[in-house]
Amino acid sequence: MKIAISAAGQSLDAQLDPRFGRCQYFVIVDPDTMEFEAVANNSAAASGGAGIATAQMIAGKGVEVVLTGNCGPNAFGVLNGAGIKVMTGAAGTVQEAIENYQAGKLQASSPPSATAHSGMKRGKGMA
User: Cys-Cys link to 36, which of 29, 67, 98, 122 (CB 3.0-4.6 A)?
Assistant: First the structure.
């Protein structure tokens, strides 16, 4: 099983980034062995469509679960369509998010937890 965690860095000690589509990295972890791979999110700076492109990239990595703070409707639709569980409300470090998931402290989202374009900062394509 592979879990993708939206992160601000490239290790298990990195802080979880609450933004799915615009996080800098994903740390993809096998929770049984704790082996991991850090993947740069090349869509983070996109002027539009970051959530969809990021979700497609994650789906292509064979991920079964995503741990993040929030996930918008477009990314959620792609992930849901690919059969990937989206767990929102995660916080702390990547390691802590995995531990909380394994302890059953995170619940799968059924609706998206953020509105469209909520991860964009004003002045970067948003009026």
Answer: 29
